[in-house]
Specification:
It contains ten helices and eleven strands. The chain has a six-stranded mixed β-sheet with strand order 1-5-6-7-9-8, with helices on one face. About 30% of the residues lie in helices and about 20% in strands. The protein starts with 5 loop residues before the first strand and ends in an 11-residue tail after the last helix.
């Protein structure tokens, strides 16, 4: 994990987008939100590209220029490693397709993304942005993870960091853990539990948002525009959020170490 680098400017309002997963219609709907357009910056907390339209999503985000602040996720890293011959498989079935769809310069761009970002936000102080946890881009922490697990993943964090913003698990929540506010904006492109493009407004509080958009039309568009062989099934399942939050929590739960806990 890279060392957090703090930007000196204090921001009043940030729009936080996580886990876009290459779903261009969902991203377009969020960028069209007036409060996203009015935010000081847009912060991305990883897993930007692993999905049906990775190159198009990167192009649209990079068109926003310096308004966008970037953090890479494990799925972005996996696409880079696959393209560079550092791995022969990707756990996500759509991953190899997404990796091949990226241009060479986009692969280089993703490879250079930081793993964490530290900013000052009005009302929240020093905020650390990461993909999964501050120390690892694929660890799992959940809204109901036990206090000992939070203490573990916070190991080594400077005491001045009072808020941690993460993604990775595709379910939005805000909770307090060992005196730190933890914010997960949910997923823009692959939500679990509830359909819509999920994101967050940060500063001076944490305001979870969901943008409704025409999901049947988006499924049809992806099916028409994306060459991934299973795109119709993929789009129907993920855009309609057919995985419930209960199912996902049950599946993810053992990965936060709770199976080893007593009582």
């Amino acid at each position: 994990m890279s060392e957090p680098g703090e930007v000196g400017e204090e921001y009043g309002r940030l729009a936080v987008l996580s886990d876009i997963h290459g779903v261009l219609p969902a991203l377009e709907s969020v960028l069209a939100e007036p409060e996203v357009a009015a935010a000081d910056r847009i912060v991305l907390t990883g897993d930007i590209t692993a999905g049906p339209q990775p190159a198009e999503v990167l192009d649209l985000l990079r068109e926003q220029g310096e308004r966008v602040l970037w953090v890479g996720g494990n799925a972005d890293r996996e696409l880079v490693e696959y393209r560079r011959g550092e791995r022969t498989e990707i756990p996500d079935p759509i991953g190899p397709f997404a990796a091949r769809a990226l241009r060479d310069e986009q692969v280089d761009f993703l490879a250079a993304l930081p793993r964490t970002l530290t900013l000052r936000v009005r009302g929240l102080g020093t905020v650390l942005f990461c993909h999964a946890t501050p120390r690892d881009d694929e660890e799992v922490v959940l809204v109901d993870s036990r206090p000992a697990r939070w203490a573990e993943v916070f190991t080594g964090l400077p005491p001045g960091i009072g808020t941690v913003v993460c993604g990775h698990t595709h379910m939005p929540y805000v909770r307090l853990a060992h005196g730190r506010l933890v914010v997960n904006p949910g997923s823009v492109g692959m939500p679990y539990g509830r359909p819509g493009a999920h994101w967050c407004l940060l500063g001076p509080g944490a305001d979870l948002r969901v943008t409704s958009y025409d999901i049947p039309a988006a499924v049809s568009r992806l099916t028409a525009e994306c060459a991934y062989p299973d795109i119709a099934e993929w789009a129907d399942y993920f855009l309609h959020a057919r995985a419930t939050d209960t199912e996902v929590l049950a599946a993810f739960g053992p990965r936060d170490g709770r199976a080893d806990s007593v009582g």
